[in-house]
Write a structure and sequence with these properties.
Its cofactor is Mg(2+); FMN. With 230 residues, this protein is of the alpha/beta class. The chain is built from 5 helices and 12 strands. Bound molecules: cytidine-5'-triphosphate and calcium ion (CA).
Length: 230
């Protein structure tokens, strides 16, 4: 079981957590988005506050109530998420990117609502890549002792298993820890529980058996706290 439950081992620490899924607008009423509920990120924020941390939670389109005692910054798009995370990161002892940023955004957003053409045709949607926030904060550390945590939901494919893809992603992003969810058996979106393997840049793999998102959150903070004292 998670060791830090009921302790104040994050007292005096400031942690930054992102949660939810970003939206990229095609016009004032339509967007590209994803199914992230924000539950795991909110569980991380609540668990950190319970362990004594000062918590900043950057929430992208989450409909859950604000956790008590947590500063919540609301954003919609990946660029807004990036601005809010970069603004808070210099003060943070740990940054946990539990949010699901949209990887792409429309190259243009129409100021007026896009209307249907009478000839039955559909408009083409052109996309461009969004910035990679996790890679950016990992590569521009403000402090040597800042712990940066990413998440990855993987299914595995013909290029590698879930854990192989997780290892490659950890190296590519440059974060300290990567929480890997195996989603090959079906979606975890909106589920009350979660299972994960926490990979570290130093080569460890800590398995977290299927449990509530609160328990998974505490297991993640356990690994973060270990890196503070190391
Ligand atoms: N992430 C981010 N900025 C992005 C995309 C992802 O900070 N533009 C973060 C997520 O919050 C997560 C981690 O990177 O912590 C991994 O997200 P994932 O979508 O798995 O990574 P991608 O690099 O987008 O890879 P993929 O092509 O598999 O989607
Ligand atoms: Ca992605």
């Amino acid at each position: 079981l998670a060791r830090g439950v009921g302790s104040a081992d994050l007292a005096g620490r400031h942690v930054l957590v992102s949660a939810g899924g970003t939206r990229e607008y095609l016009d004032p009423v339509r967007f590209l988005g994803n199914r992230s509920s924000g539950l795991q990120g909110y569980a991380l924020a609540r668990a950190a506050a319970a362990r004594g941390a000062r918590v900043t939670l950057v929430a992208a389109n989450v409909t859950l109530p604000d956790p008590a005692g947590v500063r919540v910054v609301r954003v919609e798009t990946t660029n807004e998420l990036r601005e809010a995370v970069l603004a808070a990161a210099p003060e943070a002892d740990a940054v946990v990117m539990a949010a699901a940023p949209a990887d792409f955004r429309p190259t243009t957003t129409s100021e007026a609502k896009i209307k249907k053409a009478s000839d039955g045709s559909a408009p083409a949607v052109h996309l461009e890549q969004n910035p990679d926030i996790l890679a950016e904060i990992s590569h521009e550390r403000h402090r040597d002792d800042q712990v940066v945590v990413g998440f990855a939901a993987e299914t595995g494919d013909d290029t590698g298993s879930v854990l192989e893809l997780g290892r490659a992603k950890l190296a590519r992003k440059g974060c300290d820890l990567l929480v890997v969810n195996d989603v090959s058996g079906g979606a975890v979106f909106g589920a009350e529980d979660n299972a994960a393997v926490i990979l570290s840049a130093s080569g460890d793999a800590v398995e977290v058996e299927r449990a509530s998102k609160t328990t998974v959150a505490h297991a993640i903070w356990d690994q973060v706290v270990r890196r503070f004292v190391m």
